[in-house]
Design goal:
CATH architecture: 3-Layer(aba) Sandwich
Number of helices: 5
Number of strands: 4
Distance between the termini: 50 Å
Helix content: 40-55%
Shape: elongated
Largest sheet: 4 strands, parallel
Strand content: 5-15%
Order of helices and strands: EHEHEHHEH
CATH topology: Rossmann fold
Structural class: alpha/beta
Radius of gyration: 18 Å
CATH class: Alpha Beta
Length: 166
């Protein structure tokens, strides 16, 4: 079986201790899991994006889908569904359908129910959790906008090129 790993972090930055935005926090345990399952993962089949999951405009995600469509991958292993996509139910299920159309599965390390080789219950749960991931992205955006509005209300000038602004 040809297995690929897809990892995504939201920003091309690391926390001061190097722990939060490092894709290796996903890659290392995914490799260990694959090894325990007897799956070999070639370096060319490790896809890492440093971008929001709210858009399909992720180069490695698109490269992975191309490899799937060329039938070079049988299973995509991810840390969690929200690392795969945060585009909402419709788009996430569309990607999963593309994988299925090309006889490729999707398996999550953190969500044992997410294994698209199992029909029925996994699809129901996928719909629910895709929605949850999109809602979390919306909440983050709302919190950010509220924080910016609070600062603007205090008189801070927001944006680039303003002296004394944030």
């Amino acid at each position: 079986m040809k297995v690929a790993i897809y990892a995504r972090v939201s920003k091309d930055e690391e926390a001061s201790d190097g722990s939060l935005q490092d894709p290796n926090n996903q890659i290392i345990p995914l490799k260990k899991f694959a090894e325990a399952m007897g799956w070999e993962i070639e370096d060319k089949n490790i896809f890492i994006d440093r971008a929001s999951g709210g858009s399909a405009n992720r180069p490695e995600f698109q490269r992975m889908l191309t490899e799937v469509k060329q039938r070079h991958i049988d299973l995509v292993l991810v840390w969690a569904l929200d690392r795969f996509s945060r585009e909402g139910i419709v788009n996430t299920l569309k990607y999963i359908q593309v994988l299925k159309d090309y006889k490729c599965g999707l398996k999550s390390l953190q969500e044992s129910w997410l294994d698209t080789s199992q029909e029925g219950i996994a699809e129901l749960l996928l719909s629910i959790f895709s929605w949850v991931a999109k809602e979390e992205r919306r909440k983050i955006s709302e919190r950010t906008k509220a924080g910016l509005a609070r600062l603007k209300g205090k008189g801070y000038k927001l944006g680039r090129g303003h002296k004394g602004g944030l």
